[in-house]
Amino acid sequence: MPLIWSPISAHGYGHAAQVVPVLNELGRQIPSLRTILRTNVPRHFFESRMTVPWELRPAQMDIGCLQHGPLTMDWEATWQAHRIFHASWEARLKEETLAICEACPDLVIGNTPYLAMAAGAAAGVPTVAIASLSWDDILRDHVDPEQPWHRAILEDIRRAYGQAHLLLRLTPGLPMPAFHHAIDIGPIAHPLPPARTRIRRHLEIPDQDALVLVAFGGIQFNALPFDHMESMPGIQFLIDSPVPPHNRRVHSIATLSERFSTILSSVDVIMTKPGYGTTIEAVATHVPVVYVRRYDFVEEEQLVAYLHRYGRGVELSRADFLDARWEPAIRQAMTSPAPASPPPACTGAADAALQLLPFLQPSEG
């Protein structure tokens, strides 16, 4: 029975959303496959998504980035957290290597903790990254030349990534030159058919009103401008957080039984930050996007370019977002023309499985 050890960054849910379809596709082709998920992503995320037998073994695999809400990065705190993480690097590496050796997996598939790349290599297990970004690419523009330890940590991260056997680089993805061997694969997304009529009936939304999903990648705002949202004529909202009493035009996703991907494909507009999973699914399901950029997170450039090439996107400035001047951008997104180019097919999971199967199946002859 083949076994995969899968370390996953817990910086939001996007990393898990990229690797789960690959694990499911491998399980479809190898029915006896088992998976150990090595992550602090909560169990409930996997319960509705994993179709292969799995076990969750929580552990902090990396730092990612520290944020104040979904739009404000705290780079000083991020670097300090990395400094603490790396101060015990040798102990962490030893512990993770031992955990892998005790599990005896056939393959390590990470997205994309560099600790796991180094530990998998130290354990002598083939180690593959599946990712659209790496943490050295994210951090490199925020190195303070007056803090030499920033550069030292960045080089440690790159050395760890360089020990991976292979990178399967998602479309669109950052260059990630720290990996010595990379193969480009298609986008990963698992869009689901819409349930527009059922959702609107459940929420009692009139046909003439637009439904806007406000979702910022699993990181919630401390507060939303509910009074302004209630006052936008002809527009209603779905949010991934509690709704104050007496709101009639703002609804909580928690009241729906549908999967998030079904909800996304059923709305008229999604308001979000440029994140991989949401962008790819919105493009695949032809849902227009109103996006709010951070401008200090390097992955955004490629995702925004992808959205404007293959989908329908309108930028809303952070100031207009915070001041609840949403309506013009929402209406512009709804009336924007269809793109001239069809998007790439979401073949990433199948592409990845094709590359990974040789590690999991005995060779013939």
Describe this structure in words.
The chain has 365 residues and is an alpha/beta fold. The protein has 2 domains: 3-188 and 347-360, Glycogen Phosphorylase B (Rossmann fold), CATH 3.40.50; 196-335, Glycogen Phosphorylase B (Rossmann fold), CATH 3.40.50.2000. The protein has helices spanning 14-29, 43-47, 75-87, 89-103, 114-122, 135-139, 148-161, 196-203, 226-230, 260-266, 276-284, 299-310, 318-322, 327-335, 348-360; strands spanning 3-7, 34-38, 54-56, 67-68, 72-73, 107-110, 127-131, 166-169, 182-184, 210-214, 235-239, 250-252, 269-272, 289-291, 313-315. The strands form 3 sheets. It has a 7-stranded parallel beta sheet with strand order 3-2-1-6-7-8-9, sandwiched between helices. A 6-stranded parallel beta sheet has the order 12-11-10-13-14-15, sandwiched between helices. Helix 4 (89-103) packs across helix 5.
Task: Count structural domains.
Answer: 2
Q: CATH architecture of the largest domain, please?
A: 3-Layer(aba) Sandwich
Q: Summarize the helix and strand pattern as letters.
A: EHEHEEEHHEHEHHEEHEHEEHEHEHEHHH
Give me the CATH fold name of the largest domain: Rossmann fold
Mean pLDDT: 95
What best-fitting shape do the alpha-carbon axes yield? globular
Please name the fourth-level CATH homologous superfamily of the largest domain: Glycogen Phosphorylase B
Broad structural category = alpha/beta
Helical proportion, percent range: 25-40%
Radius of gyration: 21 Å
